[in-house]
Amino acid sequence: MIGRGEGCLANKFPRLYTLSIGKESTCNQMGKNINGSWEWNLVWRRKLFDWEAEEAKQLQRMIADVKISQGKPDAWEWVHDKDGHYSTKTAYSLLTQEQRGSRGTEIFRRIWNPLFPSKVSAFNWQLVLDRIPTRMNLLRRGITKDMEEGRCAICGEADENAGHLFLNCKCARWIWKACAKWWGAKISFGTDCWNTFQNFGAWTKNKHTIEGWDCIWNTVIWSIWLSRNQKIFQDKEINLRKLFELIQLRSFLWIKATNDRYAFSLTDWLINPIVCLKVTNGAGRLH
Ligand SMILES: [Zn+2]
Asked: Which end of the chain has fewer CB atoms within 10 angstroms, the N or the C?
C-alpha cells in the first residue's frame, strides 16, 4: 500500500491493512481511471464492522486527492535517493544518521542505562521501535490470522498495539495516574511509545529525577507486560492496586541493587521518591 508524507499507510491503518486482500498490489491493480479521474477500488477480506468502515472512510479521504500518473508503469521508488534507486550506500547512511541523530542518541542513552536490568532495557528498546509481539503486531506479521485475536488481552475493547496496551488501555491509565500522584508529576500521553518516552520526565530538569522517572517508565511497562502475559497464559486477573504496589517495590529494588550503600528505606521511597533521588552525597545517588 502506498504511503504519504506522514508515514506508511499500513502503519497508520494496521487493521485495514491486515484486512486488505491487496497487500502486494500495485496502484494500477487497486483502482482505475474513469473519465479522466482516478477511482480507488479497495477490497477487503470480509465485510467491515462499523468502526472499521469509519477508518476506511478516513483512508479514502486521505488518498482521494493522490495524483496517479497515467501511461507510466507502477514501480517501487526509494525515497531516500533523488533518482528513486535503492542502494546499500544510501540505506547505510540513513541508518547511521538515525542512530547518530541527537534524538536517537539521547533515547538510546536513557534506555541502555545500566541502572535497569538489561532484559528490561531490551524490552523498552523493542517497545519504542514497536517491535514487541503485541496482538496487532502478530496479526501484521501473519503469525495469527483471526482479526478478533487482535483485541487487547486486558480490556478487549480496542486493538492491542503498543500505544494502547501501555498508554491508553484503562489498566495503563489507572497505573500511570497512580504513579503521577505518587510523584506529584503531570503526565500527558500520545498514542506513540517513542514520543511519550522521549517526553517523559519533561516536567523536571533534575538529572536524577529524570533517571528515577525513567526507572518508573521501565517498571511500569515491564510490569504491565508481565501481568498481561499472566492473564493470557495463566488466566490470572489483574489487580490494579497490587500491580501498582509491585511497581513501587520493583523500582525500589532496581535502584537499590545498583548501589549497596543506598541509604533510603522502602518507606522513604513510597512517601517521597523525589527526595530519595535528589540527595547527591553519595549515599542516595543512583550510581
Ligand atoms: Zn486494553
From this structure: C
Q: What is the pLDDT of residues 183-225, one digit of tens each?
A: 888 777 788 899 888 888 776 777 777 888 899 999 999 999 9
CA 183 / ligand 1 centre spacing (Å): 24
Ligand 1 center to 221 CA (angstroms): 14
For ligand 1, the distance from its centroid to the CA atom of residue 44, given in whole angstroms, is: 25
Query: What's the confidence (pLDDT) of residue 1?
Result: 47
Give the distance from CA 100 to its chain's centroid.
21
Judge contact between 32 and 39, C-beta under 8 A.
yes
